[in-house]
Each structure stands twice: as C-alpha cells, then as structure tokens.
Amino acid sequence: MLTREESLKLLKEHVHDENLIKHMLATEAIMRALAKKFNEDEEKWGIAGLLHDIDYEQTKDNPELHSKIGAEILKNLGFEEDIVHAVLAHNERHGVERASLLDKALWVSDPVTGFIIAVALVRPDKKLASVELSSMKKKFKEKSFAAGADRDQIKACETDLGIPLGEFLMLSLEALKGISTDLGL
Asked: Rounded to an integer, what distance in angstroms lies between the CA atom of residue 182 and that of residue 22?
C-alpha cells in the first residue's frame, strides 16, 4: 500500500478539480475518525477515503463506470483488496455488496461531507467552527437543501455502523474541523 503522501500525489495526478480534492480530503478525515472509533487501521481507512473518487473526472459522464475504473487503478497499483472493494462498492450502480465495516463506513462518509460543508457555507462566517448539531439536524430535514447529499445513505450510519445520526454528524463535523484550513472553511 502506498503511504499517505504517495496516495495524495497519486490523487493529484488523476484529479485536478480543487472542490473534488477537498471532498476527498474531507472523506479521508471522516474515515480516519471512524477507524479510530472502531479501533481499525486509520491509515488504511483514510487512504480508502482519500482515493475513493480517483476516477471521478475520468468517469463523470459515464456514472456506470465510476469506481470500476478507480478500483482497477488501485488494484493495478497493488492496493489491498479490502480498499479496492470498498472503492468499488461505494457506487451502488454496480450492485456490489457492502460487506465489511470499511465498505459501510465509506458508503456513509461519502455524502455527509457535502452536506456538512453546505451547512457551513450558509453560516454567516462560512466556517465549520460555527456549525452546530441543531443546525445540521434542521437542514437534514430540508430535502431541497444540499439535495445531492443522499439522506438515506447518510442515515445508514445507524443500521450499517450502529452509530446514531446525531453522533455520526458530530463525529464527521469534528473530523472536518480538524482539516478546516485545507478545506478553506
């Protein structure tokens, strides 16, 4: 497996959109926080989050290929099978079962990044530091707010990971606050 620095270099070879890179950094941060919570390998989980959309720019016009090409890239570079599987399984179009805790963690972490960042961006100061659980819960109920953040996918934290929604939102928020400078928030 590549180191985090090597993985970041690989990411930047494949992804050039700054917002997409920020999304992947955010997913990495949440995955590391979840790994810590579950006493799993923080480096491995972080790298899965960091590289999960490595093929997005290449496949954005062909969503049925998204994550298949990414998984293939990672497999060919010698990444561990569980990372390759998690990347492939995070696109439900493929019908690949999310079997492991890693798979399920990536599934719920992916959409929550955009949701929390959207909540921060409607704050007067546009900073993660001013986001509160109450505002996240209120915005979560507004289906038109951050409509691309699949609420059912995020709520799978309860069934797939055994973490109540409020706790998951706070864990994710705290993880993003830890990299707020990188995110510009």
From this structure: 7
Give CA separation, 79 vs 8, 40, 94, 126, 179, in Å. Answer: 14, 17, 20, 37, 25
Provide the residue type at 88 as one letter.
Answer: L
Is pTM beyond 0.90? Reply is: yes
* Paired tokens of 98: 């999310």
Q: Do 114 and 146 contact (CB within 8 A), yes or no?
A: yes
Cβ–Cβ < 8 Å for 19, 60: no
**Alpha-carbon gap, residue 13 to 124, rounded angstroms:** 35
What ranges in the chain are assigned the alpha helix state H?
4-14, 18-37, 42-51, 56-59, 68-76, 81-89, 101-121, 133-141, 151-160, 165-177, 180-183
In tens, the pLDDT along 27-50 reads: 999 999 999 999 999 999 999 999
**Residues 77, 2 contacting (CB under 8 angstroms):** yes
How far is the C-alpha of 120 from the C-alpha of 52, rounded, in Å?
A: 23
Residue 27 belongs to some domain of the structure: yes
Where residue 112 falls (left for φ over 0; alpha for ψ -120 to 50; beta otherwise) is alpha
170: which DSSP letter? H
Quick: pLDDT tens for 114-148.
999 999 999 999 999 999 999 999 999 999 999 99
82: containing domain: 4-179
Residue 184 forms part of a structural domain: no
